[in-house]
Write a structure and sequence with these properties.
Blueprint: E1 5-9, H1 16-29, E2 37-41, H2 44-54, E3 59-63, H3 80-85, E4 90-93, H4 96-101, H5 106-118, E5 122-127, H6 131-135, H7 139-150, H8 156-159, E6 162-166, H9 180-197, H10 200-205, E7 208-211, H11 216-223, E8 230-233, H12 240-249
Helix pairs in contact: 1-2, 1-12, 5-7, 7-9, 11-12
Bound molecules: 2-phosphoglycolic acid.
């Protein structure tokens, strides 16, 4: 059985104090005995304080991004060592907002994936097509390119320490969710691409989250699909009740 992974991606929301409040609410509301891996990704600034809140609980700490160099003159960037030192266990890499607004490419995603995995942390690798790409029949080619790019030179033992987040760009923050079937089909396809890089066993072992306007109302339908193993949650993750309901739905 693949593990379900539900991660809250708080994006550029919440001050440090507000992050601590939300983290405490989430810790309280999420079942500590759940088999689901539950994580929250606050702003970098709040990681340290939120780490104190989640320490010793079932909720894990995630970061929203990382730089691919170890250290040095990279103004504004945060290294894997810095994240690890505050207790981060998972790092989101290649989010579509990074790709769209901040020049993230399949190559930089790959460099980040290597850094995260070399440090022994888990990488959540985000992939997904835009609406024009889907409409022009490029869904599979775009996803393939993103997956092959992200896993370039990643050995199978490290690949097992990754999670893939399928996030159709047109569904992120829009209130438009992929239908259960659309999502399931994309997830099944993603698994075939992973199998072609590694093997079927590896593909079956890697959890694939859905992301894009997931909420308590649609979570159960999506999470009951064969190849959907959790969610990367944006808007709904800013509300502890909604987030906990999604975790329970899994
Ligand atoms: P959303 O964001 O749930 O607000 O659509 C998901 C994400 O971008 O990870």
């Amino acid at each position: 059985m693949r593990q379900k992974v539900v991660c809250g991606n708080w994006k550029m929301n919440k001050t440090v104090d507000e992050s601590v409040v939300l983290a405490k609410q989430i810790v309280e509301k999420c079942d500590p005995d759940s088999d689901t891996l539950v994580a929250i990704a606050p702003t970098f600034l709040a990681l340290s304080k939120v780490a104190d809140v989640v320490k010793g609980t079932a909720v894990k700490l995630a970061a929203q991004d990382v730089h691919f160099e170890d250290d040095g003159a990279y103004t504004g960037k945060v290294s894997v060592a810095m994240l690890k030192a505050v207790g981060v266990e998972l790092v989101i890499v290649g989010h579509s907002e990074q790709r769209q607004y901040f020049h993230e490419t399949n190559e930089t995603v790959n460099k980040k994936v290597h850094k995260v995995l070399d440090a022994g942390l888990k990488a959540i690798i985000c992939i997904g097509e835009t609406l024009p790409e889907r409409e022009q029949g490029q869904l599979e080619s775009v996803l393939s390119e993103q997956i092959v790019g992200a896993y370039k030179d990643v050995p199978v033992s490290d690949a097992l320490n990754t999670v893939i987040a399928y996030e159709p760009v047109w569904a992120i923050g829009t209130g438009v969710t992929a239908s259960d079937d659309q999502a399931q089909q994309a997830h099944a396809f993603i698994r075939t691409v992973v199998a072609s890089i590694y093997d079927d066993r590896t593909a079956q072992a890697i959890s694939i989250q859905y992301g894009g306007s997931m909420n308590p109302a649609n979570a159960e339908g999506l999470l009951s699909q064969l190849d959907i193993d959790g969610g990367l949650i944006g808007g709904a993750a800013l509300d502890a009740d909604k987030f906990a309901a999604i975790v329970t739905a899994g």
